[in-house]
């Protein structure tokens, strides 16, 4: 079984001829470069020759991708499925590992979020949707400099700042930074981890669209504090998104009241990794490479007695059909209740 992703054709304004859009070509090229177990594989490109001959156009074009049963967003929403700490640990390790592979190739994803992290039945996580991803013009070859690999961790990509889905957008992007690094992907990983570990709403909901950016950035200030990023005021949109109030961090763990409310009950190692991923200063934020070595992931012992990373094979296979059936039953029950209320 495979998944098909329809490619929207691009129509030339002058010749009126249809062709591939630059976005689609870029996604195909990047997927061909990235051959890794935690990144979705491009199996081929297929076209509907019958419709193209009939209409005299390019016809419908599809990316043929490896199939996954769900994504993290859908998995968390299932009523009869509980994401355990072991699930979150395993999925986050794979996500950060996949981000490290991208960064090693000089590629920024720029839209990391649960809906773009596919989960296969065997619990293998795969990063998908490279539609707005970009590669550095002159990426360094993959090489290790001590523990810090070359890539996009400290190289900068000059580009527009209209990237990342709002709740997962890094603070430097809000503040107008257009010369950013792979740290924006790491921030999105941190928000993804926080979302997976939260049983209640994580960020402000039902905010009017006109105020959404301002409210979200103030939520970030409230969460991580206003005293940990000295260079924030130098960014071009700081005045627009400056904190409405001072939010000092306290104690050796640099926490705020909102942080303690949202994450205070998490195990210390989980909180520490979140603090590293969600450091407001991108220059101080942990890299994806270093994050995979965090103690949060290495609490198990391998056959040889040494610390072992999370293993997808250690989790029971996902019974997605049963979970989806349970979700359908609950939705049908809710629909009947709504009908009774309407009557």
Secondary structure layout:
Elements: E1 2-7, E2 10-11, E3 18-19, H1 22-33, E4 42-47, H2 49-55, E5 61-66, E6 70-71, H3 72-77, H4 85-104, E7 107-108, E8 117-119, E9 125-127, E10 134-135, E11 144-145, E12 148-149, E13 157-158, H5 171-174, E14 179-180, H6 183-197, H7 212-224, H8 238-241, H9 257-263, H10 268-277, H11 288-291, E15 300-301, E16 307-308, H12 320-342
Antiparallel strand pairs: 1-5, 2-3, 4-5, 6-8, 7-10, 8-9, 11-12, 13-14, 15-16
Domain Protein kinase: 1-297
Pfam family, one: Pkinase
Protein name: Cyclin-dependent kinase 2 homolog
Care to describe what's here?
- This protein is of the alpha+beta class.
- It folds into two domains: 2-66, Phosphorylase Kinase, domain 1, CATH 3.30.200; 70-314, Transferase(Phosphotransferase), domain 1 (Orthogonal Bundle).
- 36% of the residues lie in helices and 13% in strands.
- The protein is built from twelve helices and 16 strands.
- It has helices spanning 22-33, 49-55, 72-77, 85-104, 171-174, 183-197, 212-224, 238-241, 257-263, 268-277, 288-291, 320-342, and strands at residues 2-7, 10-11, 18-19, 42-47, 61-66, 70-71, 107-108, 117-119, 125-127, 134-135, 144-145, 148-149, 157-158, 179-180, 300-301, 307-308.
- The strands form seven sheets. Strands 1-5-4 form a three-stranded antiparallel sheet, with helices on one face. It has a three-stranded antiparallel sheet with strand order 6-8-9. Strands 2-3 form a two-stranded antiparallel ribbon.
- It is globular, with a radius of gyration of 22 Å.
- 34% of the residues are buried.
- Residues 141-150 have low confidence and may be disordered.
